[in-house]
Amino acid sequence: MPASSKPSLPPFDPTDPLGLDDLLEPEDLAVRDTVRGWAADRVLPHVAEWYEQGELPTVRELARELGALGALGMSLSGYGCAGASAVQYGLACLELEAADSGIRSLVSVQGSLAMYAIHRFGSEEQKQTWLPRMAAGEVIGCFGLTEPDHGSDPASMRTHAKRDGGDWVLCGRKMWITNGSVAGVAVVWAQTEDGVRGFVVPAGTPGFSAPEIKRKGSLRASVTSELVLDDVRLPADAVLPEVTGLRGPLSCLSHARYGIVWGAMGAARSCFEAALDYARTREQFGRPIGGFQLTQAKLADMAVELHKGILLAHHLGRRMDAGRLRPEQVSFGKLNNVREAIEICRTARTILGANGISFEYPVMRHAANLESVLTYEGTVEMHQLVLGKALTGLDAFR
Question: Where is each Acyl-CoA dehydrogenase/oxidase N-terminal domain found (predicted)?
């Protein structure tokens, strides 16, 4: 082919150095751009103040707006849910966490934990009662699994439910529950004589309370609570009928972890873009610091890990859409992407110098948030052991 007839290469895009947008369909791009625009308008102007104050004062309003966008339970089908692809859901998570991890957590807990549990394991009556209102953001949900003394070892949970005539009576405590004190419904997992079961607990049920946890150093623009269950009496049909055992909550966690694989890259992207812009404009020794070799080496390494992580997330999303995504592969993604996201944030902080700790920039906020993301829904060690067992065939958990 003559040189003159060769197609011209597209220009290099610093925001998409691998050309990953070529992997996306027009519908995918539309979802991404819609969520990005909403976050830019409704979250970014306020989130530094929310974070500094340690509150999310408009959480119910934001939930209704996210419902109108179709972002709540968006990968579920029917009952008012959007029925979006796994890749589209992942793109939404990335854009939400680029604004703040707390906003992505609100959506993840609502859709991938509380709604997913009811959608997959609930009765038709439970689905009809709760899912349409949760999809619209009219009802916020939470998911009670972690306890004060049992996080990585949910099989040892102390919360229990006993039959009393035709009712169930729940007793116990759950800890570090996103959305807890603003939730209209909680999906609570408890030990029973038949094994671990899930229960749909409406807020306001006598004996149920959700005091908010304060004085957090991370995820400050997010509602985090304890769930207290003191002889909570529920009717027989409050139990999720389609699952018994830890398979239920663990499958929900796997779905939520998938969103984290994408979301962590959103936080990393925000920090990378802040560092790149700063490096182009901040002058030292008579020129922008982006012109120095050490700064360019940092930016290059950050870009490589950021876009490798997005590519990994995209690959896992395609596998999920094809029904071929294994829990071990989700652990692979969560372990890698959160770990690399934290390193990107820390490196961005060094480029910004003292300004990196200011809330005028997003870097320190994202770095602190990711310290929570690193350990919730599976610590580094747990995901390493999941992969270790898959690689060797040997169980090192006990």
Answer: 26-138
